[in-house]
Amino acid sequence: MTQTPASFLPFVKPEIDEETIAGVVDVLRSGWITTGPQNQAFEAALSEYCGGRPVRTFNSGTATLEIGLRIAGVGPGDEVITTPASWVSTSNVIYEVGATPVFADIDPVTRNIDLDKLEAAITPKTRAIIPVFLTGLPVDMDRLYAIARQHKLRVIEDAAQAFGASWNGKRIGAIGDIVSFSFHANKNLTSIEGGALVLNNEDEAELARKYRLQGITRTGHDGMDCDVLGGKYNLTDVAARVGLGQLKHIERFTEQRRKLAHAYFTGFEGSAAVKMGMGLPLADLVNSNWHMFQVTLPLDQLTISRAEFMEQLKQRGIGTGVHYPAIHLFTLYRERGFTEGMFPHAERLGQTTLTLPLFTQMSVADVARVCRAIDEICTQYAK
Question: What is the rounded (10 degree) CA torsion for 247, 248, 251, 254?
């Protein structure tokens, strides 16, 4: 079954309006295309969105996590607890600052870090926690911060996928400790590449600014100093202008994503795929921003592999993704002593998860098309 390119439904597609495109052209013509006035405006708008908290932008959500750890004082000899069900950058940055990642398995219902297992993993060396809000669903923030306060731990929220999400009516970013957002091209709000740190006070914001650009502080027209070991992590004004344009639409984006997620739950209700054991995400249509809609395939009931299932969908003009293989099973982590079987829920998720199309230009009819295709494939290849 061959589809024309026009009928292909990707699993993600950014929505960038003509005003934003024209704004980028204006920036390019202005002669100031690296970090400058657009970046300042973007930081101010993000700060307003996050309840007035200080915000500093960076060139990626990986940089924000690493700098967040440095601001929290995490370094050699420290342990940081996180989840193996994430993009590998979440734990790579812990190694980057010289600390040691300690994994806690996920809750199979929320697919986020299991807070019971997190608390059990705390040792005298634990300095911080990096919870991941997988697919935009926050963890139980009340319990998370109760644990952090009890054990005097810093929290660097990996909210890469959670811009626009909330917890009990409060925006992610407006509450908590250090919050890290990603604005990568596949995120709900994109600056093409980029990220932001939401911080607690101006001292942390100033330290973030220093880490962002070689640790430099300028004094007057011709003076400068360097008092911390920084890097090159600044966001360009071109990217900031894209982010500013996106921010105007974030409420609509989130509303549309929740509408599409609801359509998926409706479309799969009573379906052959679910009856065979296909797993659906937690149906939180209030707190989650629905960055992604992920199912777990009933591979033990099928005669084809996940890769073959994805190919069948591709032949029907439907794109999919895999988010994410369990981090501790990558070679880098196996070489550091992690083995199969240590975190079974994360491993099963990594082996069976399938990310379905979900982006703002989709329609409910598109969702129904995906649901029908999955049912057809499950029925055709049932054991």
Answer: -50
**Closest to 196 measured CA to CA, from 229, 166, 235, 142:** 235
Mean pLDDT for the chain overall: 97
Residue 245: its pLDDT value, please?
A: 98
pLDDT in tens, 74-87: 999 999 999 999 99
Q: What tens digit of pLDDT does each residue of 182-203 get?
A: 999 999 999 999 999 999 999 9
**For residues 60, 231, 56 and 191, what is the CA-based torsion angle, rounded to 10 degrees?**
-30
Q: What is the largest CA-CA distance in the chain?
A: 74
According to CATH, the topology of domain 250-380 is: Aspartate Aminotransferase, domain 1 (3.90.1150)
Is 250-380 the same fold as 18-247? Answer: no
Phi and psi (nearest 5°) for 320? Answer: -140, 170
Q: Is this prediction's pTM over 0.90?
A: yes
DSSP, residue by residue, 262-311:
HHHHHHHTT-HHHHTT-B-----SSS---S-EEEE--GGGBSS-HHHHHH
Say how far apart CA 158 and CA 130 lie, in whole Å: 6
Give the residue numbers marked as catalytic. Answer: 187
**CA atoms within 13 Å, Cβ hemisphere of 201:** 3
Q: Is the pLDDT of residue 5 over 60?
A: no
Residues 6+ apart with CB under 8 A from 297: 278, 306, 309, 352, 353, 354
Domain ranges of the chain: 18-247, 250-380
Q: How confident is the model at residue 3 (pLDDT cuts 50, 70, 90)?
A: very low
Q: 18-247 maps to which CATH number?
A: 3.40.640.10
Q: What is the DSSP letter of 6?
A: G
Tokens of 125: 């060396």
